[in-house]
Prior knowledge:
Strand 1 (17-20) and strand 2 (23-28) form a beta hairpin. The chain contains four helices and twelve strands. It has helices at 2-13, 95-98, 233-245, 270-281, and strands at 17-20, 23-28, 36-45, 53-65, 68-93, 100-111, 123-131, 134-138, 141-142, 148-155, 161-162, 185-217. Strands 1, 2, 3, 4, 5, 6, 7, 8, 9, 10, 11 and 12 form a twelve-stranded antiparallel sheet that branches. Helix 3 packs antiparallel against helix 4 (270-281). The protein folds into two domains: 2-217, Sandwich (Jelly Rolls); 220-292, Type 1 dockerin domain. It is mainly beta. The longest helix has 13 residues, at 233-245.
Amino acid sequence: MRTKILLALFFLACGGRKTLAADVTFVDSLFNDSDWSAQIVHTINHNACGTFHAEFTAFQVLTGGDPGAYRHVTHTFADGELFVAHLNNHAIWNPVTDGGISQILYSQDVNYLSGPGAPPFAVGYDLLLKQGSEYYISLFTYTQDVWVNSQRSSLTANDFTRLFGTFGIPGGPDKPDFSKSGPPIQFGFHTRNGADGCNTYVTDHGIDNWQVTIHPCDCPRQGDLAQNGVIDVNDVLAVIKVAFINGTDVQDPLCPKTRSNVNNLGPVDVNDVLYIIKTAFSNGPAPVNPCP
């Protein structure tokens, strides 16, 4: 317990970021109120009774988490639905300077404190990212009044849905831009509730051990096995050796593929040899960049 808190304090003091090899992780298990901002980003009025209402609270609680401190959230609503964005003020990734994103790993602990015994029976806690003015989510739903850990790995841009797009609201791209030229991305989580009928509902829930791990992607020199800055006969010979006689390959630290995998289609083989021959001698296309 003590070690966990001290480590969390250290990470938060460093902007909530820790680095392990090429991966970068944003983590929070303390949930200081100053580290988070939240707002209702959308509501839906069911217009069944004329009693529509939607509000929320979100704040740090020092005990009762998994373990220790956690972020406590309440939703109060009637005759409709509410959607709340919670953004970590330190969890910001700028692809232009930090590199494109290959994959994201996500983990969170959520407790539906109200329990499943009464409507609305569940609460949504989704991985959230904001890019520009758009919010993108990857969905999770909880029904248990105990701490439940959920994890999701190998998330790419295609695994996210534009939040406003699900409501039919026109706007920006349907998917976030994980490429090296993409705008900055801020991470957090998204909570949602809704119910039919005229009653007012209040749900209590909490989140702990929020963690986003980014696998950066940067492949600046695909095909350049000779490491001389150009694609030439030396690179062709090097790819031939890799493909047929177990030659030495080169892999950049943030690149998911080796430099000889010039067509980005799997194991290095004769197709990579033919590809790089065209690049080197007949004005063929440059090696394919494995990054988004």
